[in-house]
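We emphasize that the prediction below concerns an isolated chain of 111 residues; any contacts that depend on oligomerization or on bound cofactors are therefore not represented. The input was used exactly as deposited, without trimming of termini.
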Amino acid sequence: MNIVNLVGRLAKDPIARDGSKTKVTELLLVTERPVIRDGRVQKDPETGYTKTDAEFHKIIVFNGMGLPLRDHKAKGDQLAVTGRIHYTRWQDADGNDRYGCEIIAENVEFL
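Result of the prediction step, given as a token string:
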């Protein structure tokens, strides 16, 4: 089963790429998780807040589902995304194999 559920904030404004038949909206979603070492959540000694690591996820939204994102969402807004992982492979200008990973959105909720 290939299912991904993410809740995070937009790292930048949505990017629109429209082809002749397909509208593509690209998102960069930031999620955070606590830093855990030796089975314990790490705290910042100065503030007492939990230390976190940020991860950035490239999200692709196709056609009509992406249109409200373009019009109503901006950097910093919170979203919930359900989708699937998609791996890509291509060759760069020098003929080297390159690899990428993105999330193909199947549902996006405004939070």
